[in-house]
Each structure stands twice: as C-alpha cells, then as structure tokens.
Amino acid sequence: MTEETPGFEEKPDVPSGATPEDAEPKAASSSASAEGAAPAGDTNQTAGLVAQLDQVRTALGERTADLQRLQAEYQNYRRRVERDRIAVKEIAIANLLTELLPVLDDIGRAREHGEFVGGFKSVGESLETVAAKMGLQQFGKEGEPFDPTIHEALMHSYAPDVTETTCVAILQPGYRIGERTIRPARVAVAEPQPGAAAKGDEAEAADDKESGGPDEG
Q1: CA distance 142 to 188
Q2: Which among 144, 155, 143, 217 is positioned nearest to 186, based on CA atoms?
Q3: What is the mean pLDDT of residues 181-206?
Q4: Contact at 8 Å (CB) between 174 and 136?
Q5: I need a surface site. Which of 67, 90, 151, 162 has the fewest CB within 10 A?
Q6: Cβ distance 186 to 154 under 8 Å?
Q7: What is the β-pairing status of strands 185-192 and 151-159?
Q8: Where do the DSSP E strands lie in 90-198?
C-alpha cells in the first residue's frame, strides 16, 4: 500500500515553463469575464419586458376608449328610445282625447241648459274625470285678451268698453295637454270702437282747457 505524504496538496496543472502563480490570474480573469457578460443579458431581457409592457398599456388604453365610446352610444340610445316612447304615448293620448272632444262638448251644452242630470250626469262626470287624469285641460274665459295662438275668432264686433281685442263670448272651449294645444278656443271678439281713443283725447283736452290747462311748475 502506498502511503500518502502528509501535508501534500494537489496543485493545478501548470504548463511547463510557468510558475504556479500564473494559473491564479488566469482563473480570476475567466471568472470576471463571465460576470461581465451576465449584465448584458439582463439588460436585453429588461428592455424586452418594458416593450411588452408598453404594448399592453397601449392595447388597454384602446380597449378602454372603445368601452367608453360604447357606453356613451348605449346611453344615447336609451335616451332616444325613452324620448320616442314618451312622444308616441303623448300622440296616442292626444288622438284619443281629440276623438272625445265632441262628447265633452255635448256634456258642456247639457250642463248649460240644465239637462245634465240623473244617470247622464254620472256618466258625464266620470268621463270628464278620466280625461282630466289623462292630462286634458280646458281653457277659454270671457273677458280675457284675445291670443291668436290659442284662440280662434269666429265672430267680431266693436265695443266701447274694451281697450284691446277681447274675448267677449266663448263659443267652444279650447283644450290642451300640457303645453300642447289640441283645439283652440273658439270665441267671439270685440275691439275698441273706432275713434273712441281720439274722442277720449279730445274730451280730456277740452277738460284741461276749461280748467285753465295743466298746472305749470
């Protein structure tokens, strides 16, 4: 059996003509080269990840903008549908109530002539209540100024006791739903008597003359 010599350590192979110290710098140089190459690979990988992140952010921004645009279009669609639904409902109610106006006129005439009694009165009042619940409003009163947007003049006269064109008789009441007029009030109108204003001015001037004229300050 071969005996190992105490204290003997293996040395790396050293080329002939070189000292053992020459091997140590060479190994250190190889290790340094390996460490220097690693950061370059990490930098490339980081740059790739940053580029991918930018692409994801861009795509996310585009999808978010698309979603917001779709939401806005949907809200506009809902508002348009609701507006159209309300308009169709109002038109349908107006058409129905327009067909009932002659019946309401008959009820009004019966009331004026004292014939609105008994079962006819009960049915008539029920019909008027239903029409009012559906938004029907009656308008037109004697003595109110004539308004061509809501009144239809069927008769015309002159009167000394009016200062402007006035409704002196309601021949047929008008009806509206909200702000929409479905039938104008048919009225008789009276205008101031021609020359009445001039005569009034002459009378006033005569009174001033008799009293010595207006006071002078």
Answers
A1: 9
A2: 155
A3: 77
A4: no
A5: 67
A6: yes
A7: parallel
A8: 136-139, 151-159, 166-172, 174-177, 180-183, 185-192
